[in-house]
UniProtKB/TrEMBL annotation:
InterPro entries in alphabetical order: Cyt_P450 (IPR001128), Cyt_P450_B (IPR002397), Cyt_P450_sf (IPR036396)
Family named by the database record: Belongs to the cytochrome P450 family.
Protein name, UniProt field: Cytochrome P450
Organism of provenance: Streptomyces laculatispora
Amino acid sequence: MDPAGGCPHAANARLLARGAVTPVILPGEVEGMAVLGHDALKEFLSHPDVAKNARHFAALQAGEIADGWPLRTFATVQGMTTADGADHRRLRSLMSKAFTGRRVDELRPRIETLTASLLDSLEAAAATGGGVADLRTHFALPLPMGVICELLGVDAAHHDRLHHLSNQIVATDIGPEEVKAANREMVEVLSAVAAARTESPGDDLTSALIAAREENGDRLGPHELIGTLMLTIIAGHETTLNLITNAVRALCTHRDQLALVRSGGASWADVVEETLRWDSPVSYFPFRYPTRDLEIGGTVIPAGTPVLAGYSAAGRDTSAHGLDAGRFDITRDSGARHLSLGHGAHYCMGAPLARMEGVAALEQLFARFPGLDLAVPESELPRHASFVGNSVRRLPVRLHG
């Protein structure tokens, strides 16, 4: 795997041509595997003999993984994404109260108000930038960050730092000392957030999690609390940030599809779903581990192997989505639902919230700026320095064509 990331789709196509499952070399010469094919990934994600807990990570348990390994946090952080069985159900039950359909619907007015305010900021940035502004910085980032931090009760003063640290934690091209420093500071910031909410509880998820811990000491340990906050902040804004960025980029380079949704021939929800499939916000997500030698897609994955879930590859798998899987088509009905929000017991709990944010962002953005277009050729947009996240680092746009 290329630690520098970049656009994954050409490499994914080459790998898929060889098979649905492939061995990979992770940073630090760590041997792993990736599941790329749609059907194979769907089977793997819900297989009863596949675990998330790193006690099944053979190389880690053998002491072969350094403390500063860039992907170590994905394996060792304590929370829902690294829990199995009863532990996973316990943590998911605690979190689920914040992501019920009713709670998400209650956020809709706040999301729409925040979206409108950020469009004002985007226009102001363009006014001082010769008509050009970075949509990612001024709109796609602060929307999901503001929403998830409000849900968690995190003060706005922490937003920029938490985004920077999240970027460091999901990066795959940084050195051991940077990795350790980013994780250490993230724990410090979130510990301060937890302390503030302990002293002054509010109507937020962090306060609810702390209350659950205090009511029954074995329900949520202190490391689980910090790990849960870390995972929720990273997943709750990085993925939606990439979704919005990728959708705007797709529409600007596929003007026929933009015209179709404007004419009522498709919906903004259709745009969100096709973006999730065609340009998944997460390319390769670490890790799952077979608890026994497991045959998936005709390939045996040895027990204890760290496995990447290849969402960006599965989204363009022609065997599932048709020979034109590489084409952005918001009217697509291939019969196979994308897997970009997961599948099985670990399906993304925040999926309804991400979809709502994506629809609100796109609908208001293009209603206010119908002539919006890229300010530079797509080929010049700098890509993420990670094979985990999938997007561009900047999205300069001209608001009025």
